[in-house]
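Researcher: Quick one. four chains, 792 residues in total.
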Amino acid sequence: MPKNRLEAFSDGVLAIIITIMVLELKVPHGTEPAALRPLLPVFLSYVLSFVYVGIYWNNHHHMLHATGRVSGSVLWANLHLLFWLSLVPFVTGWMGENHFAAIPVALYGVVLLMAAIAYWILQARIIAAEGPESRLARATRHDVKGRISPVLYLIAIGAAFIDTLISGAIYAAIALMWLVPDRRIERTLAGPAASPPG
Amino acid sequence: MPKNRLEAFSDGVLAIIITIMVLELKVPHGTEPAALRPLLPVFLSYVLSFVYVGIYWNNHHHMLHATGRVSGSVLWANLHLLFWLSLVPFVTGWMGENHFAAIPVALYGVVLLMAAIAYWILQARIIAAEGPESRLARATRHDVKGRISPVLYLIAIGAAFIDTLISGAIYAAIALMWLVPDRRIERTLAGPAASPPG
Amino acid sequence: MPKNRLEAFSDGVLAIIITIMVLELKVPHGTEPAALRPLLPVFLSYVLSFVYVGIYWNNHHHMLHATGRVSGSVLWANLHLLFWLSLVPFVTGWMGENHFAAIPVALYGVVLLMAAIAYWILQARIIAAEGPESRLARATRHDVKGRISPVLYLIAIGAAFIDTLISGAIYAAIALMWLVPDRRIERTLAGPAASPPG
Amino acid sequence: MPKNRLEAFSDGVLAIIITIMVLELKVPHGTEPAALRPLLPVFLSYVLSFVYVGIYWNNHHHMLHATGRVSGSVLWANLHLLFWLSLVPFVTGWMGENHFAAIPVALYGVVLLMAAIAYWILQARIIAAEGPESRLARATRHDVKGRISPVLYLIAIGAAFIDTLISGAIYAAIALMWLVPDRRIERTLAGPAASPPG
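Model:
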């Protein structure tokens, strides 16, 4: 099957997820700057989640760019990823409206962890179809970020019960780690489309 | 007419349907795990409906992949399907917020039944245009799932007035039945695009 | 400029308009059939507006299919049409929640009338670019429906102050008139893409 | 990387932003024309923001039409632009519901200013990739509008603390300035795709 509808549907869902989060920023009644102060934690969670969904869109874009055609199991692995990402607005709102309380901050990490696992499953399904010498397989062979992120999420989830500031710092650090461009992977992906003989 | 805009519009509507359902998961005020307990039935209905809309997107994807060009009546049959699917968030919310009471559970089944009928009409309109020897006609000739689903929905609707657990189990079973990949159809669809002489 | 992004953006906006209308169907608190009764006028307005937005999507689809490339003024004429259609959820909700009171029913007609005028402007801008012998110009030369609709909207707006049932009947009649396929136009559009020498 | 998914995702986000703003137009309870009067400032802000998002979509469309392929930094510059535009519904609602009070009117300008800066960064990233003799570089060399807008936003933000009518007039004037078609740029963009020797 061609991949264009998978991309279009994912783009649609990710575009909606990233945009409806802003609906949690409820219009305040007052008109002074002080009226905006209670919105600050909501706004900060929004920024964090916007960056995360942006990273997922970006990586999804790269991954599918390196993919030829998709199978039925890839469609479902993709829906599984979208399911966990669709919960991001909920945990973002819960975390933001409760000023980064322990349980909401931990649940935020759980959803991010599940999304990371779902992304890894999707990648594994695509590589299983594309073959071990495909561009995607080679580009992700030394995928340090993808391996370190789940560990960091687990630490952040545990840390939420000690100090949520630590969790927040870890979430921000993971986002930053992904934001920094990865020249090596871009180079591999930009390489010849045909798989080398190995 | 080319089918690309039909696909794009359907992708958009399905992406929005699958995503706005999460808005029913209202951010709770408390921050303890107990605050999430009242959300459990809402969450379970969300998961069920997410899988159903995912199945429809998946099947729609397969069906249109096997379709050449579309006529005016196909456009309307498609809108008819989207209409019933657009009611899924409403019945999902009603069912979830009322902890699976009889009438909401039955209405959930009615909307799924109507969507199944609408899907069948859309398929029939496409086959009418494509011809009885088209790939889609051959792939759906022995469509057991498509024939058994409406019967199961009817049973589940009736069972809601006896025990909603039965209905819930049937809805979950239908979803599982569709989730299991159907190698035979995939093989037929993956076959030669040109219709055999018959 | 190519027309694909104009189509994609319009598909997105129309998909959202048609879907967010269902959010007006607020989940009721009771679980008996009687709990759904107050939603009946909201549901009826939803069905009517769903059909109208569906008609606009359908006609938009046909019109752009018959169009080559688009100019800057066409982009703005298209945004103008989307603006009026974006008000449909608001007037639908106002009309439905007020059980078809006079002013909301009249305003519903005003928005439909403005959308019809905006559609006509968009069509005129495209024909101005495509030339009087283009497929679209020929297909719309004897556009009876497009000319009769604004007159009917005006009558329905006035009738709202006498009996809103008349207005409702007219709105439904206009929708039905557009639903009935127009073989002649489809045939012209299906004809040769190249403009005849005139 | 090809640019089609960047366009599709941006179209999706912009379509949602432009459409969810209408959700701020809350259905009033009364049915007389007077019931609509409190909505007038909300409606006026909606119209203004609709035009602004429309301008951004239009310019984004033109800019990417003149672009070949996109790099990773362009993807992030684009997400940065979408972030600021995603705040437009919030500031639109705050400004409209508070009848154009000073702080909301100023914040509206701040978000527009940040979006203008983000647009400029995106344009600069694309030009850096396309080269100084690319069509986009030539088309924006004498970009008076792009340079004058930030200055006007700054004046409008300051003026909000003297008289918000001045700010509103400036916002409307900037929108009008962008609405007026810019024949020179359209001509340059319509020119030969290959870059001239300079």
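DSSP finds nine helices and no strands in chain D.
Researcher: Thanks, that's what I needed.
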